[in-house]
Amino acid sequence: MKQSDGGYAPSYNVQISTDAQQRVIVAAGVSQSASDYPELVPAEQRIEQQWGRAPEQMGVDRGFTSRANILAMEQCGVDLMGSLDDGQAQSAGQLKRRGVDAAFGYDPASDTYRCPAGQTLKYESQEKHPGVTAYHYRGSAADHACPLKPQCCPQNASKGQSIVRSVEDPVVEAFREKMKTEAAQQIYRQRGAVAEFPNAWIKEKLRLRQFRLRGLVMILREVLWACLNYNVQQWICLRWRPRLELAKAAVS
Predict the structure, then answer these.
(1) How far apart are CA 111 and CA 81, in angstroms?
(2) Greatest CA separation found in the chain?
(3) Per mean pLDDT, which range of 161-170, 193-202, 224-233 is the poorest?
(4) In angstroms, what CA-CA distances link 194 with 50, 61, 115, 119, 190?
(5) pLDDT attached to residue 179
(6) Which DSSP letter does residue 36 get?
(7) Could you give the CA distance from residue 20 to residue 59 in angstroms, rounded to a whole number?
(8) Do 110 and 127 contact (CB within 8 A), yes or no?
(9) Quick one: which H or E segment has residue 41?
(10) Spacing of C-alpha 152 from chain mean position
């Protein structure tokens, strides 16, 4: 697995799921996946297997938020809270950085695009991906003389201009609209304190920054022992905090 210093070394991807109300760890898993995207569905399945039902809501960071995961959580009945990149905004930003400020205009009636220089791009093909369909449009090869070509598509030397129109699944669109609301953002802002604290606690208090064992089974055992240690500490706090509050009230 690639490391933060740019090198590669044997590593494990540890996933910890934490209850937002009681702040205790409710499930944990280990894999050797270099990406977090494929780890969300197994995390949800572990919670469902451990507790007999799917979680009502899951808050995840950008590393877990993909269109495929949005669709998967919708099928599981889980209200997903996350951050999904806006591909159209990124494409517009790239064009602007190249000096092409005007947007490509889309005409639904003719299903064509018109570039800032007035060239027409016609429908060519489409690709289906989880949660989105990409429609490809291309201009005529005779349009190479376009004055904006060096800024718009500098690497396209042999073909006409091209652009992709992405149409997202209604479930993904609904997710985007939900995450624009203040209510969803307020819930999402709680994710860091809930999800990151157990990881930081295990690393700092137990000094578990490097595993002592090898193999997924043995590593999982080591992780589960660390999670149990954390939960015991949390239980002590939850058990004694009401008594401390009563004692303070009696003294005052």
Answers:
(1) 34
(2) 87
(3) 161-170
(4) 19, 12, 47, 52, 6
(5) 96
(6) S
(7) 9
(8) no
(9) helix 40-51
(10) 29
In the predicted model, is pLDDT for residue 252 greater than 70?
Answer: no
Tokens of 241: 């905090």
Question: Based on the number of CB atoms within 10 Å of its own CB, is 184 exposed (0-12), middle (13-18) or buried (19 or more)?
Answer: middle
**Given CA atoms 202, 205, 211, 212 in this order, what sign does their dihedral have?**
negative
Residues with Cβ within 8 Å of residue 56, at least 6 apart in sequence: 78, 79
Q: Tens digit of pLDDT for each residue in 134-183?
A: 999 988 766 556 776 666 666 665 666 778 888 999 999 999 999 999 99
Tell me which of 248 and 127 has the higher pLDDT: 127
DSSP helix/strand/coil, 72: helix
Distance CA 12, CA 115 (A): 47
Are 59 and 81 spatial neighbours (Cβ–Cβ below 8 Å)?
Answer: yes
The residues, ordered by sequence, that sit 6+ positions from 218 with a Cβ below 8 Å of its Cβ are: none
> Computed from CA positions of residues 197, 201, 202, 207, in that sequence, does the dihedral angle turn out positive or negative?
positive
Q: Which residues contact 195 (CB under 8 A, 6 or more apart)?
A: 16, 18, 59, 61
Query: Which tokens go with 211?
Result: 């595993």
> Mean pLDDT across the chain, nearest whole number?
85
DSSP, res 95 = H
The length of the chain, given as a count of residues: 252
Measure the CA–CA gap between 60 and 64, rounded to whole angstroms: 6
Q: Residue 106 in 3-state DSSP? A: strand
d(CA 94, CA 99) in angstroms, rounded, equals 9
Task: For 127, list phi and psi in degrees, rounded to 5.
Answer: -130, 135
**Radius of gyration of the chain from Cα atoms?**
25
- Confidence (pTM): 0.80
